[in-house]
User: Fold this.
Amino acid sequence: MPQGDMTKFESQGDMTECEPQAPRFICGGEVNNTKTKWRGIVEEYRSFLPIAETDKVITLLEGATPLVPAPKLSERVHANVFLKYEGLNPTGSFKDRGMTMAITNAYNQGAKAVICASTGNTSASAAAYAARAGLGCIVLIPQGHIALGKLAQALIHGATVLQLKGNFDQALAIVRELGDKAPVTIVNSVNPYRIEGQKTGAFEIVDALGQAPDFHFIPVGNAGNITAYWKGYKEYRDRNLSTKLPKMCGFQAQGAAPIVLGYPVENPETVASAIRIGNPASWQSALDARSESDGMIESVHDQEILEAYRFLASQESVFCEPASAASVAGLLKVGVPSGSNVVCVLTGHGLKDPDIAISQIEPPRVVEASFQAVMAELDL
Ligand SMILES: *Cc1c(COP(=O)(O)O)cnc(C)c1O
Assistant:
């Protein structure tokens, strides 16, 4: 037996030395999810990013997230659907793509501290990357409206966290003023380096599929990510790395849908706390992405979000947070032409917000610690 294991080990070593070039596949076929020697999004996509040769890169090897085929969802909407599972980034959300760029820039500019307003994931990411760079990190969050996992992350990574008696939009307004008047660098998505980093999600999708999809579904909160993906798709097309562009389909939660309504929402409300935003910073560029791509920005009800959330976990085995499921809820709501190639971005990990998961399921039954009692409860 040990002999056999050894052989296996050796042959793996040989393979690493050859490093065959992974093939690129056409959409509908296999997906290239190789992670071999991944160096993080800044090094991998350096020629697309505003970064100086001499800059020290602050990275946690973010990116290279899998594009998971979704057979059950594909069957439901009669299309080829893939899930870009951004919950597998180092701090559990896509925010890490932008944060490696924003913190790298802040560090190389000699900043001492960074600051952000956050619905949760930005603060988790900022705290982690700032700690990595040895920078201070200040976070303003809306009191009582951030998922417990995200708060825990910001604190454990050593950020100074202030809970504001207000909402995200008020927090961002204060952060902007502090950025003007105090020696701190803002790392919200109003920082253009964030958008630059986040556009690499589009690059990875095209790298994996060999082409841009027909439709790109995405949740919309502050609207930085839809802006970033659209920018990424256009840049890849401009360098002839794809020949087409997807229709961008953004989805807000019904109780926090300023772009759909056409005016700011003063008291946004939704179960999807990561998109509980009433006055998006990237409002105009989200509208541009919609019109340039001939796409849409619509809203989905909390019940539709939660239905998609449970469907993804129970049928596709992909656990995302509620806000992420807005993309899939949108796909289920509006549909696509039969046979389309579709990517839905799942922006954050389900473990960020266990309270919502628990609220969606029956609590487990309690039984006596005996064989008979356990057997009696089971349908075997
Ligand atoms: C930040 C975030 C969003 C919203 O992204 P925007 O760029 O603000 O539109 C959606 N889902 C999750 C999990 C997030 O953390």
About this structure: The chain is about 45% helix and 15% strand.
